Amino acid sequence: MEKRIVGTNVQQAGNKRSQFWEFWRRYKQNPGAVLGLIIVIGLVIAAISSGIVFDYETEIIGNNVIERLQRPSMAHWFGTDELGRDVFARTMYGARYSLAIGVVAVIVSLVAGVTLGAVAGFAGGAVENIIMRIMDIFAAIPSILMAMAIVSALGQSAIILMIAVGVTSVPSFATITRAAVLQVRNNDFVEAARAIGMPNWKIVVKHILPNSLAPILVQATLRIGNAIISASGLSFLGLGIPLPAPEWGGMLSNGRKYIRDYPYMTIFPGLAILITVIAFNLIGDGVRDALDPKLKN
Questions:
Q1: Its pTM surpasses 0.85
Q2: Do 76 and 70 form a contact (C-beta atoms < 8 A)?
Q3: Which alpha helices (H) appear in 80-184, and where do they start and end?
Q4: I want to staple 244 with a disulfide (CB 3.0 to 4.6 A). Which of 61, 90, 102, 140 is the partner?
């Protein structure tokens, strides 16, 4: 019996590895998805190394009025702003805020939305109606207005911004998870788990959600780009991370006063947002294609 259990565990581990390599084989066949992954890896490296290469107090938030408003050159690749701060250093350091906000906001919405959607899809009846009607109410509110209301009520900080952006995506995750659970909950393996007396929560966690991950993962990767845009928009409106933190949306807002004579102050943060969002969208498209069962043949 012990040998049989060990053999079963080894077989399951082998199946998981083979599934991962099959996913990776299909993913890397999409050149755009590979390019997006390379860009995101480069952004992560830039975000990590910026804290080592640049001094936060002097180059990121400090003042150096002697070198203010210098155009891009070998000394300052992206030029300097109105306080003499290096725009390249601030743009690289700003990747920390944007990537962290995008990932954490999606994790917040993922946990809340998947939990609500799984409960609604598995329980059905009145519980499903109550949860989904509440989600419909939240979905009817424009996401930027909801985020602005949350930030205005709770104050400005990176944590509040992550929560505000994350809450706006909960209805979409709940809807997608509910639809995926409805497709799986009546399968034979779920009925077998019920027959042996397995608790409902364990059935959902061990059997239903693992077989419903494909659309959820695709939605998560695509939502990271939307979260970065939402956070940058709030910072542009003055409701994001407080200055002088080098968040890309805040840098855009700060540079618009000088856009006529010194457009580089807005061009480079704007390009950073554009490239990052496109990269995550390319990754999302690649994940969708790799997980789509209709494309496996």
A1: no
A2: yes
A3: 87-123, 125-140, 143-154, 158-167, 170-184
A4: 61
- CB neighbourhood size of 284 (10 A): 21
Burial code (b: 16+ CB inside 10 Å, e: under 16) for 103-134 equals: bbbbebbbebbbbbbbbbbbbeeeebeebbee
* Residue 252 pLDDT greater than 80, yes or no: yes
Element (H, E) at 283: helix 264-291
* CA–CA separation, 68 and 82 (whole Å): 5
User: Measuring CA to CA, which residue among 250, 237, 242 is closest to residue 156?
Assistant: 242
| CA 91 – CA 110 distance, rounded (Å) | 28
Q: Which amino acid is at 161?
A: L
Contact, 281 vs 131, CB < 8 A? no
User: Is the four-CA dihedral 172, 179, 133, 127 of positive or negative sign?
Assistant: negative
Give CA–CA dist 264/91, Å, rounded. 12
pLDDT at 11 over 60: no
Q: What is the pLDDT of residues 35-93, one digit of tens each?
A: 999 999 999 998 888 878 777 776 677 777 777 787 888 877 888 888 878 888 888 88
Instruction: Give dist(CA 55, CA 93) in Å, integer.
Output: 10
* pLDDT tens-digit readout, 28-38: 888 888 899 99
Work out the number of other CB atoms within 10 angstroms of the CB of residue 140: 8
Locate the DSSP E strands across 153-288: none
C-beta of residue 285 within 8 angstroms of C-beta of residue 32? yes
Task: Return the sign of the alpha-carbon dihedral for residues 165, 171, 176, 180.
Answer: positive
Residue 55 token pair? 């001094």
